């Protein structure tokens, strides 16, 4: 089987001065904190993927979805390679639910200056590539 590069979409959900992160379980990135997100499906727009993944994982509905950057992510231990497209979106109401308990332990809101550790590799790469944008964003 040939190796492939997968496309992921990460959704930075804003509410006031906070963003939503979940503690990952299982697949690559276990025990790290990440935004909601998932695989881009064939023929799907990035914005549609973002809204679908957030709804599937948290039960939340997002609005004002806009692309903010991408990362090139190598997961050496798992032998996986992703391009992760990040979007920002707003969600002003509702509580994040754990709708995929085999993938996520918990959802919590954090400010940029108080992010949990360790972060998911794509989040680390995004912040390292754009430190002033994401630290000043909120």
Automatic annotation (TrEMBL):
Its cofactor is Mg(2+). Keywords: Hydrolase. GO terms for biological process: dGTP catabolic process. GO terms for cellular component: cytosol. It holds the Pfam family NUDIX. One of its GO terms (molecular function) is 8-oxo-7,8-dihydrodeoxyguanosine triphosphate pyrophosphatase activity. InterPro entries: Nudix_hydrolase, NUDIX_hydrolase-like_dom_sf, NUDIX_hydrolase_CS, NUDIX_hydrolase_dom. Residues 4-137 form the Nudix hydrolase domain. Belongs to the Nudix hydrolase family. This is Nudix hydrolase domain-containing protein. The lineage of its organism: Bacteria, Pseudomonadati, Pseudomonadota, Gammaproteobacteria, Alteromonadales.
